[in-house]
Write a structure and sequence with these properties.
It holds the Pfam family ADK. One of its GO terms (cellular component) is nucleus. Monomer. Keywords: ATP-binding, Cytoplasm, Kinase, Nucleotide-binding, Nucleus, Pyrimidine biosynthesis, Transferase. The protein is α/β, with parallel strands linked by helices. The chain has one domain: Rossmann fold. 49% of the residues lie in helices and 13% in strands. It has a five-stranded parallel sheet with strand order 2-3-1-4-5, sandwiched between helices. Helix 2 packs across helix 3, helix 2 crosses helix 4 and helix 4 packs across helix 5. Bound molecules: uridine-5'-diphosphate (UDP) and magnesium ion (MG). The site of magnesium ion has 6 residues, from helix 1.
């Protein structure tokens, strides 16, 4: 199985990057599949900056921006915020970070998000992680975590599952057709899942089979 290092930007003979575009890994999976938790683990070990699209949108609400009310309403309904809003927040966060390696978590959520991101930034992901988790397990996790989120109630959770199946799975299928998806069984405990994740990020020489 290919690792992230296999598809990282190419370097010329002097070691400078031929392709100066940042390395992006999209982290996808249903609500409660463990994207955020695993991203925190990944950044500790592999030098990436973690950008959660959901967290950026929630920060935008808190900042009192003019889009805040619209974003809040969409999140409460489990709907997907217009691409231009999310992409602008992601671009800003990428610039601010000063890094050139990003884990983008919870985005793109539909085909329109995906196409718009690629068109606006010119960036294609190196790899797409797909945290594949049983719905009943995701539901259990969302209902037992207590982060005060307006969308962690059973009514909104059901809507988020539906949006995931109808809109986000097609994005995963698209990247599957390009050979970029690394599917991880995310129904297991956090530590076990991270063992699988590590194998994807570790350089080939350090991979244990
Ligand atoms: N959201 C969105 N676009 C994004 C990411 C998130 O519209 O690119 C909204 C959407 O309403 C989603 C909510 O933010 O249901 C929470 O997203 P997050 O990724 O934080 O949570 P998840 O549903 O993956 O647990
Ligand atoms: Mg999250």
């Amino acid at each position: 199985m290919g690792t992230v290092a296999d598809v990282a930007p190419i370097k010329d003979t002097k070691g400078s990057l031929v392709n100066k575009k940042p390395t992006v890994v999209f982290v996808l999976g249903g609500p409660g599949s463990g994207k955020g938790t695993q991203c925190s683990n990944i950044i500790e070990h592999f030098g990436y900056t973690h950008l959660s699209a959901g967290d950026l949108l929630r920060a935008e609400i808190k900042s009192g921006s003019e889009n805040g009310t619209m974003i809040q309403n969409m999140i409460k309904e489990g709907k997907i915020v217009p691409s231009e809003v999310t992409i602008k927040l992601l671009q800003r966060a990428m610039e601010k970070s000063g890094n050139d390696k990003f884990l983008i978590d919870g985005f793109p959520r539909n085909e329109e998000n995906r196409a718009a991101f690629e068109a606006v930034t010119g960036i294609e992901p190196s790899v797409v992680l797909f945290f594949d988790c049983l719905e009943e397990e995701m539901e259990r996790r969302l209902l037992s975590r207590n982060e005060g989120r307006v969308d962690d109630n059973i009514e909104t959770i059901r809507k988020r599952f539906k949006v995931f199946l109808e809109s986000s799975i097609p994005v995963i299928r698209y990247y599957e057709s390009k050979g970029k998806v690394r599917k991880i069984d995310a129904t297991r405990p956090v530590k076990e899942v991270f063992e699988s994740v590590k194998a994807i990020f570790a350089p080939k020489s350090k991979q244990v089979h």
